[in-house]
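Here is one chain, start to finish.
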Amino acid sequence: MSDNNTNREKLPVSGGYFVPLVSSGADREVSFVEIYRMLMGARVLILGVTLLSAAISVALAFLMTPVYRAEVLLFPVSEGEGGSGALGRLASDFGGLAGLAGIDIGGGTKAQAVAILQSRVLTEAFIRDERLLPVLYAGDWDDAARRWKVSESDVPTVWEGASYFAEDIRQVIEDKNTGLVRLMIHWKDPALAARWANELVSRANNHLRQQTLERSARNIEYLQAALKTTSVVEIQQVIYRLLEGEIKSSMLAQGNKEFAFQVIDPAVVPEEWVSPRRVLICALGILVGLLLGCGFVLVRHMVTESPGASN
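Its structure:
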């Protein structure tokens, strides 16, 4: 056994726990009591670091721009649930025959409606129509001169705006148990957040309604042409039933503004922001400052008491 192990100093503490720290000349085990005394001896330094960190966190918390959240509660309505149940039954009864004929009688689904709500096509059209790029990238836009402050190569594109909007501003959550969908918009202007949320729902409804109208128009035209080319009574009956379903679908789409999404609770202007969480930021600042102060004292002790420190 080496001399270091035989001559190692043991400091008794409650429970027999020791924390090894390097000391001058030989290894020595330092107890929690000694660490506590060391930290208490440097309490002024630790308190100063903690207060500095707390001040920085408070400044950051109050300098950060508040972000508000506007929310719309929706219920996705498929075409069958919207009143064209007959068309849905026709799709199951004659879907194979219609498919062979090149007719699409499949109604919109909830999954399709949710996908359209967060699609890039809808987002880019919304940004383009509402001219949102100067709003989304306000730091790069000179509102007085009505032009970009950055070089032409750095001017944000609609594609970049749509990516930013999808990742940081819009959030869509679907509850699998209830089927309800929550569309949330996070933005620094509460009035804009509420307006964008409601407008996106309206655009999704209009987009899917227009798709249905165009599909029904194509199918009706095709079925009417096919009706003139056959004299078989059974086929004529099938075509008449398909025509009836398409006409019903077209009529429901024209008269129903909430075609794909039924608005349960529209977005209103929020009065409280969701971020930054100032209390949490301040608490974390205090904790980080305390840990930094204690860590600095312990590291300083290890460096000053190490064997090479005297050299």
